[in-house]
Specification:
six-stranded parallel sheet, Rossmann fold, 2 domains, alpha/beta, 7 helices
Length: 196
């Protein structure tokens, strides 16, 4: 597979993650924004979703290359998954995030809704709830790109990973309590370099 020809830095870098479910809703929201704001340059890592029409598109990038694009971008927009949000935070970007919804067949469950909400409470992301909300947040962020820059999150801390696991489990409780030992926590563990 040949490397895609990218034109960084982009105003907006979007990642839909690596989930095999399509995420057409987020691409449509971004394209609506780009139609109204043709001066904004954008790259969408679209995975299994159809490539964008109004932005540069790539199915998948090596993680390090994606992190470099995040670092150069004015705004980072990601799916609401643990890896996506924490990857952006690792390079100092405070990402906008859109959780995938199971009722729209974008994911098998709504863990991203809960995770993104918790991360927003802790100042690690800004959750986007609609196309209009995205437009408002992008307008504000592009007018003041420093508003979405934060401290770098350093991976590798077992203590931080265990604290996050405890926060997530205590916040979700109920039916989520036993389910967090699977893929969800393994993905968090990959980011923090610990084993669940």
């Amino acid at each position: 597979m040949t490397e895609p020809q990218l034109n960084p830095p982009y105003d907006l870098v979007v990642s839909l993650g690596t989930d095999h479910h399509r995420f057409d809703r987020l691409v449509a929201w971004v394209e609506t924004y780009l139609e109204d704001n043709p001066q904004v340059t954008a790259l969408i890592q679209h995975g299994f979703t159809a490539p964008p029409r109004l932005a540069d598109g790539v199915e998948r990038l090596p993680r390090q290359q994606l992190l470099e694009l995040y670092q150069q971008a004015s705004v980072v927009l990601v799916q609401g998954g643990p890896g996506s949000i924490l990857d952006a935070r690792e390079v100092g970007a405070l990402p906008l995030s859109v959780p995938r919804l199971s009722r729209l067949k974008e994911a098998v469950d709504d863990h991203q809704v809960e995770f993104a909400r918790i991360m927003e409470i802790h100042g690690e992301t800004m959750v986007v709830s609609s196309s209009e909300d995205l437009a408002n947040k992008l307008d504000a962020a592009l007018a003041d790109p420093d508003s979405l820059k934060g401290s770098y999150r350093v991976p590798g801390s077992d203590k931080a990973a265990q604290r996050l696991q405890g926060l997530v489990e205590s916040a979700l409780g109920g039916p989520w309590k036993g389910r967090l030992s699977g893929v969800f926590l393994r993905r968090i563990g990959q980011v923090f370099r610990w084993k669940a």
